[in-house]
Amino acid sequence: QVQLVESGGGSVQAGGSLRLSCAASGYTYSTNYIGWFRQAPGKEREGVASIYTDGGLIRYADAAKGRFTISQDNAKNTVYLQMNSLKPEDTGIYYCAAGSRSSGWFPIFWSLARGYNFWGQGTQVTVSS
C-alpha cells in the first residue's frame, strides 16, 4: 500500500503562483511514476503533469506547458508541481497519483487515470480574475 498526501493549495489572483507538494509513504518501491490530475466542477478529471521517478522522464498537458513544472526530491519521497502565471481556468481540485506500469507505457499513456492505482485526497486551487 502507498499513501499520498497533497498540500500547498489555496486561493490566488490571476498571474500568481502556487507550489503543490505530494508526499509519498508506504511501499513506494512498487511505484514507478507520480502524476498530478485536476478536476473542475462539472468536468472530467484530467492529467496535468507526470514524472517517471527513475530517470526523470516528464510529460505535461498542453494547458500546463510553459507555466507548470513538475519535479521530485527523491530523498524526501516528494513530488512538486510549481504553478506560475495561474489563470481562472486552472481552478479545481488537484490530486496526486502514483502508478507502477513500465517505462514503455509511460510516455504515451501517462495521462490515463486508470494507469494510477494510488491517489491522494486532493487539494483545492482557486484562481480569481
Written account of the structure:
The protein has one helix and eleven strands; from the N terminus they run βββββββββαββ. Helix content is 3%, strand content 50%. Strands 2, 4, 5, 6, 9, 10 and 11 form a seven-stranded mixed sheet that branches. A four-stranded antiparallel sheet has the order 1-3-8-7, with no helix packed on it. The chain has 129 residues and is mainly beta.
Question: Can you summarize this structure?
Answer:
This protein has 129 residues and is mainly beta. It has 1 helix and 11 strands; from the N terminus they run E-E-E-E-E-E-E-E-E-H-E-E.
Helix content: under 10%
N-to-C series of helices and strands: EEEEEEEEEHEE
- Helix and strand content put the structural class at mainly beta
Name the beta content range: over 45%
Q: What Rg, in angstroms, do the CA atoms define?
A: 14 Å
Outline type = globular
**pLDDT averaged residue by residue:** 95
Poorly predicted regions = none
Please count the helical segments.
1
Sheet of most strands: 7 strands, mixed
Q: Report the end-to-end length measured between terminal Cα atoms.
A: 40 Å
Care to count the β-strands? 11
Keywords:
129 residues, mainly beta, 7-stranded mixed sheet, 4-stranded antiparallel sheet, 3% helix, globular
Secondary-structure map:
Blueprint: E1 2-7, E2 10-13, E3 18-26, E4 33-39, E5 46-52, E6 57-60, E7 68-73, E8 78-83, E9 92-99, H1 106-109, E10 118-119, E11 123-128
Parallel strand pairs: 2-11
Antiparallel strand pairs: 1-3, 3-8, 4-5, 4-9, 5-6, 7-8, 9-10, 9-11
